[in-house]
User: Which sequence fits this backbone?
């Protein structure tokens, strides 16, 4: 379509035909509006860095600072110490890492079974999986809290990890991917060769699922790193995740706003780095999950 | 995969066996009498593997999900019918519907329900409208299209805690960026923390900021799946760009719009982190006058600040029932929309 564009007469009717759908080139107005959206998206993050480089006194004045000051490293250091971010970062890496590995592994196994294997009640079980995506996490927290207290696990990381080891979304996501991405003939050929199911999973399913596993892993890590409700109930300030630490920083009685902004910056930094490195994959994953879901 | 080694290990098996035939059985047919005991053992193992492995693959998900989501769900219902105090966890006595009666006669419950509804509407509606517009722009052929998409999604990477801390400062009464900009526009300063609608708008804006890009990507995916000839025939019929958007894009997006409405509704019903942190020190109250105390916040406040876990369970189940009603209404609407031409 684009190749014929220059030769077409510039009649209104014709141009509208060309204006159909995705072939349309963006005009300057589009770029202007997108730039405004981009500024709104990135503005608060950039301003967090600006605020983190100032003093609390300066932040209380009008007009608010629009450029960087010289206090960034002092504030980062203060936030790191006051919020106990070294423990919190370590805890968050353990929690989000474990949850990610487990979710990706078990989602791939269950997704493969739902996509390619025949077994009794598979349709019903898949329906159940999809249905449970609607259950809000609030519905589980009271019993979980009581059980973990009974086990003496209050304030320990396994309390946060255990309830998030699998997700219905992950299972459904992998199922949708593998239905199309994994040729059934490949599995049958492996069976004919005498491969056991475990071998097939290892040598056929995992290689075929790798792109989707990577995307699900990134999405799960973002989710687990940012999870708020259950960690804040299950953990205290002595053994926090990053989000719990940020909460205690924000609800301190003598708040130093510049230090709080430095904490917010530090808490978001690992994910921002992940976004710079893998943003394209994360975007692709969300779009893929959407189109098939 | 099928390595050469494996093929060598079973030279007879792959030759003329139909797909799905057990390798042991195939060997039986051709190499009878060589190793009958081993072969039948192999074929039995094979059949067992075929039967059991699907269940083995799905069981980790169902065991973990059942243990930590489905079973707790039922226990929450059980606890909602008991007196359970945070200070005496083992001292649980039957309460019947006391917790629910207590809840439904509390003005704070209805206040929280109203706030959840209001904040839900003023965060979901602008968010989804902006997302459709944004998706439409991203659907044009753009320079650096991936960069635009990643930039729009960046707020999604920011945690509730970090985003709310930043917005709280942006909305502060003195020296806050928002009031400073309003001052330039000739509008007096707004008390974003104390005023009724101001604080609800402020909390909603955090939700809108974090989720618009995410929803835009979902709409974009759906837009790219719309067949181009639909637009072409609309254009031939003389439809303007706006008419194409209204009469082709929007109807084609209808299932996706319903999906995002449902997901956003669920999210709005659970709203918790944003109002908690926006409130600062007394966050669980949702402001001095409970202006932005949502149901999620109310549950946390009753359960873990006041220490009445039985009542917190009743709140959780009330939230669930409300969600089920919303889902049912959604389903009915979808059916209606599908039936009408």
Assistant:
């Amino acid at each position: 379509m684009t190749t014929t564009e220059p030769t077409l007469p510039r009649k209104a009717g014709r141009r509208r035909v060309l204006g159909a759908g995705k072939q349309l080139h963006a005009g300057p107005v589009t770029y202007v509006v997108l730039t405004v959206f981009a500024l709104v998206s990135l503005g608060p993050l950039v301003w967090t860095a600006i605020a983190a480089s100032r003093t609390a006194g300066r932040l209380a004045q009008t007009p608010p600072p629009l450029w960087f000051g010289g206090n960034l490293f002092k504030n980062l250091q203060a936030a790191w110490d006051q919020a106990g971010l070294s423990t919190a970062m370590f805890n968050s890496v353990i929690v989000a890492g474990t949850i990610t590995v487990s979710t990706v592994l078990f989602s791939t196994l269950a997704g493969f079974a739902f996509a390619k294997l025949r077994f009794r009640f598979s349709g019903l079980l898949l329906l159940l999986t999809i249905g449970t995506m609607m259950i809000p996490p609030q519905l589980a927290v009271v019993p979980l809290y009581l059980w973990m207290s009974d086990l003496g696990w209050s304030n320990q990381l396994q309390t946060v990890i255990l309830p998030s080891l699998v997700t219905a979304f992950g299972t459904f996501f992998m199922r949708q991917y593998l239905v199309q991405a994994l040729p059934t003939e490949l599995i049958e050929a492996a069976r004919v060769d005498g491969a056991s199911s475990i071998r097939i999973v290892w040598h056929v399913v995992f290689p075929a699922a790798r792109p989707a596993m990577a995307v699900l892993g990134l999405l799960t890590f973002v989710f687990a790193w940012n999870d708020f409700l259950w960690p804040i109930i299950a953990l205290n300030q002595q053994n926090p995740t990053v989000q719990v630490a940020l909460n205690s920083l924000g609800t301190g009685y003598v708040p130093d706003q510049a230090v709080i902004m430095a904490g917010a910056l530090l808490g978001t930094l690992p994910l921002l780095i992940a976004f710079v490195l893998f943003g394209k994959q994360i975007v692709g994953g969300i779009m893929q999950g959407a189109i098939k879901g | 995969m099928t390595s050469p080694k494996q093929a060598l290990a079973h030279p007879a098996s792959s030759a003329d066996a139909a797909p799905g035939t057990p390798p042991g059985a195939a060997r039986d047919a051709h190499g009878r009498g060589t190793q009958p005991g081993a072969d039948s053992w192999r074929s039995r193992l094979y059949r067992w593997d075929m039967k059991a492995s699907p269940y083995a693959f799905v069981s980790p998900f169902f065991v973990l999900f059942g243990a930590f989501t489905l079973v707790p769900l039922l226990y929450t219902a059980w606890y909602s019918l008991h007196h359970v105090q945070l200070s005496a966890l083992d001292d649980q006595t039957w309460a019947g519907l006391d917790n629910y009666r207590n809840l439904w006669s509390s003005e704070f419950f209805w206040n929280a329900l109203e706030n959840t509804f209001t904040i839900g509407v003023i965060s979901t509606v602008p968010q989804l409208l902006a997302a459709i517009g944004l998706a439409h722009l991203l659907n044009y052929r753009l320079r650096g299209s991936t960069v635009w998409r990643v930039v729009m999604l960046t707020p999604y990477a920011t945690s509730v805690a970090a985003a709310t801390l930043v917005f709280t400062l942006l909305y502060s009464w003195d020296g806050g960026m928002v009031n400073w900009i309003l001052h330039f526009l000739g509008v007096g300063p707004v008390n974003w923390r104390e005023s009724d609608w101001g604080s609800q708008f402020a909390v909603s804006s955090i939700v809108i900021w974090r989720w618009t890009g995410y929803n835009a990507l979902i709409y974009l995916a759906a837009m790219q799946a719309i067949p181009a000839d639909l637009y072409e025939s609309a254009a031939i019929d003389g439809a303007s760009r706006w008419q194409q958007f209204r009469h082709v894009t929007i109807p084609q997006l209808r299932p996706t719009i319903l999906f995002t409405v449902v997901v956003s509704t669920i999210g709005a019903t659970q709203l918790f982190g944003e109002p908690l942190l926006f409130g600062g020190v007394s966050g669980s109250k949702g402001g001095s006058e409970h202006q932005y105390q949502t149901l999620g916040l109310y549950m946390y406040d009753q359960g873990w600040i006041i220490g009445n876990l039985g009542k917190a369970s009743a709140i959780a189940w009330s939230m669930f029932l409300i969600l089920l009603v919303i889902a049912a209404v959604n389903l009915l609407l979808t059916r209606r929309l599908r039936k009408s031409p």
